[in-house]
Specification:
Elements (H helix, E strand, L loop, with lengths): L1 E7 L5 H10 L6 E7 L2 E7 L12 E2 L5 E9 L2 H10 L9 H12 L9 E9 L5 E5 L8 E5 L2 E5 L12 E3 L4 E5 L5 E5 L16 H19 L6 E4 L4 H13 L3 E7 L4 H13 L3 E5 L7 H11 L4 H19 L4 E3 L4 H5 L10 H13 L5 H10 L4 E3 L5 H8 L7 E2 L2 E2 L1 H6 L6 H4 L12 H6 L2 H10 L12 H7 L4 H10 L5 H24 L5 H4 L6
Parallel strand pairs: 13-14, 13-16, 14-15, 16-17
Antiparallel strand pairs: 1-3, 1-9, 2-3, 4-5, 5-6, 6-7, 7-11, 8-9, 8-10, 11-12, 18-19
Helix pairs in contact: 2-3, 4-12, 5-6, 7-8, 8-11, 17-18
Protein name: asparagine synthase (glutamine-hydrolyzing)
Keywords: Amino-acid biosynthesis, Asparagine biosynthesis, ATP-binding, Glutamine amidotransferase, Nucleotide-binding
Pfam families: Asn_synthase, GATase_7
Length: 537
Amino acid sequence: MCGIALSIGPDADPTFFRRMLAVLAPRGEVTEARYESGLLAGTRRLRVVDRGRAVQPWTSADERWLLCYNGEVFNHWELRTELSRLGHDFRGDSDTEVVLAAFEYWGPEAVHRLRGEYAFAVVERATGRAFLARDPLGVKPLYWAREPGCLHVASEVKALVGYGMPVSEVPPGHHGWADADGHVRLRPYVDLPALGAGLPVIDDPDEAALLVRAALRDSIRVRVDTDLTVGVVLSGGLDSSLVLHEVRELHQDCVAITIGAPGSPDVAYARRLAADLGVPHEVVELRPRDIRLADIREAIRISELTEYGDIINAVVSVPLFRRLRQLGVKVALTGDGSDELFGGYPMYHEVGAEASRRLFLHRIRNLGRTELQRVDRTSMGHGVEARVPFFDPSVVELAMRLPLEFKLRDGREKWIVRRAFAGVLPEYVLRRPKNPMSYSSGLHERARLYKPFFARLYRSFGYQLLEPVRRDFDSVLSRCGNDLDQAIADGLARPDYTVLEHARDLVGAARWNAAPMVRRLVGPRRTRGDDEAPLTG
């Protein structure tokens, strides 16, 4: 994976372009660039596939096309075989070369053949036309800004704000052409709400469980096809435990990493599973009082996130991926996405089936700027390629075909996932209720103390050139009684929190943060042995 940057047009400025690439430096290990009249293109490349030869920008054999590419296409070996039969002569073993070859043979329709997490730009060198594309869920980012005489394209907002021009996003599942005059015309090539449409609902629980297990195992399999050490972000919950178990079966060279406060249940569960599986385990211990304003500022700078809850989550993610990079791990898998797909949120079960489906689809459409953006920025901000097996389109399509009662049943959220891996995962994992990473240890509540500063910090980086920071959509939805239409309208009318809401949040967070201090003062002293006592059951 990489950070990519391009300036296309007669007024492309090498000085500004070099600054764009420098801003993207944390996303990779080496800078590779090409300077031509009217075309400046480069990458900050994280060397994962065909590390010695997949140099970018990649050009076609006839020099007509130039590719800047971020991500990985997991079916590149199958595509390579097909393209070889069509007569393409490959120069190396990278998926980068396969992406451009696919574009040469199939044009814009090539995106329908790619299974992966990607964003790329293909430029016709003679004309300056550029084809832009982003993966269906928006795992990998792509943005653009236009000024007279030049179009700028980059992997992150922070690389573009220096121009002072409005920044636009290539939406998930979109592709299209930017003409030589700089006009960008994009259209969707995949309709997320239509995934699974026309296919029968899977109403047999045994069949559903088998399909869920097979789909997740296959999604994980393609994401560990590497000779590098694979890290797994292990929260101690169901989803990340499932990922670690499957990675351990498929890729022996793996390591688990957990972040949490000393003595927290999350850390205890994670330690137990890693020990049971025989997987090396790194624990990043972070006490709530260790989180300071500087950490909030850095999380906002790295993540570029627009909603408060996502920023709070990023505060915890940043030190986790920083430690992975210190360990020399460049590829990691996470358990993100299961809650969205398999009913991990209460709102899905508080409304009727049709309203629940609309809420589900709305959340999926917005992942590229919420959950997935957090994962991309906080991982790539430290040169770690985070892969998200729950967000493979095949898994999303399957989730859309499952009835709501398979997602919440007998009082258990994500019931079908638990059934799918019954007999595979330990009972103490399967029985554990949902517990968002580190909430129980207070890390998120500590970060919440700084919410009144979020908007000002966000604007200080110029990120409002894309869109303003806004209140959490989930809080708007809850206030609107889970009425999606009303919540969308209300969110547009008042995108940010009011002073009164900030004050209320501050009082609540201060009260929560004061409680542990009181317990330490009046309660019995805990020993190290108490913190690390083994779980039972």
